[in-house]
Write a structure and sequence with these properties.
single chain, elongated, LIMR, LMBR1-like_membr_prot
Length: 91
């Protein structure tokens, strides 16, 4: 469970950095005068960041599962790979 939390935090922070990179500059004065607009802006930023993190995780699911299957096929007698497969991937 801790591994998935750390992975999601990494995806969330990278999504926040990516959205911050493409954020339009010079428009801060439009929403900074009203507290309601600031709240709406923060909620929308949180939702966009969360959605992007989940989308990136969904896109990476197939390549990660292909790589893990290939590692399992290439090293079928390794106890470490069997442990990773049983406890992390299947659990």
């Amino acid at each position: 469970m801790l591994i998935f939390l750390l992975l999601f935090l990494l995806l969330y922070l990278s999504s926040f950095a990516l959205l911050g990179r493409f954020k339009r500059r010079g428009r801060e004065d439009y929403y900074s005068t009203d507290e309601d607009e600031v709240t709406v802006y923060r909620i929308s930023t949180w939702l966009c960041t969360f959605s992007l993190a989940v989308s990136i995780g969904a896109v990476l699911l197939l390549p990660i599962s292909i790589v893990s299957n290939e590692v399992l096929v290439n090293y079928p007698n390794s106890y470490y790979i069997k442990w990773l497969n049983s406890s992390l991937i299947q659990g």
